[in-house]
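Structure request: Lytic polysaccharide monooxygenase, Streptomyces carpinensis.
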Amino acid sequence: MRTKAKLYAAVLGLTTAGAFVLSTGGASSHGYTDLPISRQKLCANGTVTNCGDIQWEPQSVEGPKGFPASGPADGRICSGNNTRFGELDSPRTPSGGAWPTTQVTGGQSYAFRWQFTARHATTDFKYYVTRQGWNQDHALTRSDLNTTPFLTVPYAGKQPPATLSHSGTLPTGLSGHHVILAVWTIADTGNAFYACSDVTF
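Returned structure:
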């Protein structure tokens, strides 16, 4: 009887360990943009403070894929539909100030850069930008964005390296404060990763 109990405990232990490995394996495949610097990275590096959980997990803004037809709800795009990261959706930082911006120039080439904590099979990377005259006083919605990406980088199911840069031409005809939404679509799950970067044209 004692031998059976030990065997049962060993099997249960292996099963639990296996479930843990499976659950953490998927969760480790995350990433964020740092060029132009994203809101989650600004929180993680301490430039913006009091951000809540996102300051520890800039790589974790994961939500349903299929944007813009599906994906995160309007008003929850920058957080990827994660209420835990709701600070990212606010048009103001947690302290009430403006989100810091990166200076960019329309019509010029820009090297967008992602940092990955683990690699994942990738469908593509897409970049969207807000329309001229968009409403800056509320959380980002589809109506604020040009929902046709200005840059699409197909990735054919490959896994990216730890750091990945790709160049694209920034849209023309924009001035002032805008938000660039970067979307990394995963090939073998139902999710994508989202990053909002504030820029000044």
